Amino acid sequence: FIRLQLLALLLLLLLNWLHPHPKALKCYKTDSEASNLTLEGCSPDKISCVLHFRIDKSTGARHRGLSNCWNLNDKCGIADCLYTPHSRIEDHGSCCCRTDGCNLMENLRLVTSPPTATTMPSKGGSSQGNRNSTSKSSSNDSGSEGGLFAKGGSDQAASVLLFSLAPVLAICVTVVLGFFLYTRHRERRKSRSESVGLASYPVDNHPFPVGHLSSHIRLKERLATGKFGCVYIGEDAETDQRVAVKVFPPQERGSWLVEQELYSLPEMSHPNILCFIGADQCGQGPDLRLWLVTEYHPLGSAHDYLAGHTVSWIQLLDLAESLSRGLAFLHESSSEKPAIAHRDIKSRNVLIRSDLSCCIADLGLAKKFFQGESIGDVHPQVGTRRYMSPEVLEGAMSFYKDSFLRVDVYSLGLVLWEMLTRCTDAYGAEGVPAYRLPFEAETGSSNPSLSQMQAAVVIERRRPEFPAECQSHQGLSYLRETICCCWDHVPEARLTAACVAERCKALRRLPVSVAAEEARRRQQEEQLADQQAPAAGLQLPQAAVINEASAAASAEELRPLREAEDAV
User: Measured in whole angstroms, how far is the alpha carbon of residue 159 from the centre of its chain?
Assistant: First the structure.
């Protein structure tokens, strides 16, 4: 066994001598506000530099935005930062390159086709100048690439020898180390590493002792199973208080830490954010389970509640306003609390309280934005496909804080649509139809693929359909307009979550008068329809007068809503 270990060590040393580790790429990086520019080293998996910039439509001038390392190499320049205009985004762009410190505005080059020696234009200048500079740049690039592999016959021979022996050496190292070392010590090392630094982060006034939640809580019934773990009903052995316990497996420790960190931020308490009680660990080694303990809400998620219940106009406003206020709280920042983008707003991640208000849960994919800090490495295409915004589906999202917040508002609009379609005031005598998820009718699937969502949302620009009654009900019509402003195709045209909350609050002045007026109008129309044709003909002018008066009264009552919107 010792001889095999020594042999493996010698093979690794030989491989390292033949092929030393490449020098890490250095790129210019900016903070979240794109104000500070520093040259920093990249991690080994980052092979290119990226530069995002904003385009002034009136002047055509380009202004630097965020800069960072990148893990893609497709269509990137070497010393020049290549930029291909996007067909749907005219005011933002990005470019990438592959040499140290190349992601600067002075290295920006515009291309209209894949980079070649004859079609790639240079920065500025006449067409002749473009051809000359393109030719020069192409020759420089090719020369740079050639220099990487043309350092002499000995280097080429060493490279050939290295790549010939690499598969054999890799197999030997994998078999020896993988079988005798990795499998034997993996669980021991993993247990030791996970036992260090795992602590509980309870909030003030919770009923459980610090660090001993798992010893005081008995898991009862499993409520749900998700991508990151299972949710159980827990019961405190001493007080019989019911709580919700989200149990993460060891491999999801990262998600557990993210949620724990966000819930433990200063000033994070809010009535429309799920109340965090504490975090703990249970077991060791492969049996380790990571607990996240929160308040328990028997009504479940908005998805489950809406699937089995309808709501009145007033209840709809309670749900819509509380959800919007919870998201607005996440998005706002203070001296202690950063702005937070949820990045997975959907009806399954919204819980219903006993008073029919909402609280937002599941912060496993959330991203916080501290003032002056770099956004860092963030994968933009996360969340649930059905609730992804057009820019996320298209992979054309800008790496700014506001861009992430606008993605949340798009998803908020879809959840509000789900709530509106379960409102009894949105339908006539035929009643409320069965509950449907967003885009279930548009895609014909309860679990649409990414390509189906891209076709429906990005290419066809489709959105879920509203009930026909929304056109005649003044309150529902205004809420419909608000939802459409949330899921606007242009991110900058969307409302903020705070504005949505204020609109819902203003609508509370309408429910009794408008809903009653609409009910009276429908009743009068039904009575007129039941009469004989001649009598109905005599009553039609009166019905028209009633409808006109109803519309005028409703329009007068909507005036405060417009004023509240202007104030926001």
Answer: 44
Per domain, the residue ranges of the chain are 26-149, 159-196, 213-295, 302-372+382-508, 514-567
Each residue's pLDDT tens digit, 176-196: 676 666 566 555 544 433 333
Tell me the CATH number for domain 213-295: 3.30.200.20
What digits encode the pLDDT tens for the residues 238-286?
A: 788 899 999 998 888 888 888 989 998 988 999 999 999 888 888 777 7
For 139, the enclosing helix (H) or strand (E) is: helix 127-149
Q: What is the CATH number of domain 302-372+382-508?
A: 1.10.510.10
Give the ranges where 395-496 is alpha helix by DSSP (H).
401-420, 440-443, 450-453, 474-486
Q: Indicate if 362 belongs to the active site.
A: no
Q: Tens of pLDDT along 354-411?
A: 999 999 999 988 999 887 666 665 666 678 999 999 999 988 888 788 999 999 999 9
The CATH number of domain 26-149, selected from 3.40.50.1970, 3.40.50.300, 2.10.60.10, 3.30.750.24: 2.10.60.10
Nearest of 49, 54, 84, 90 to residue 70 by alpha carbon? 49
Q: Which residue among the candidates 318, 344, 362, 425 is catalytic per the annotation?
A: 344
At residue 100, does pLDDT exceed 80?
yes
Please answer whether residues 561 and 507 qualify as being in contact, where contact means their C-beta atoms are separated by less than 8 angstroms. yes
Yes or no: say if 358 and 272 are a contact pair by the CB < 8 Å rule: yes
* CA 467 remoteness from chain centre: 28
What distance in Å separates the CA atoms of residue 504 and residue 324, rounded to the nearest whole number? 9
Instruction: Note if the pTM is more than 0.70.
Output: no
Alpha carbons 96 and 65: distance in angstroms, whole number:
13
Q: How many CB atoms lie within 10 A of CB 119?
A: 11
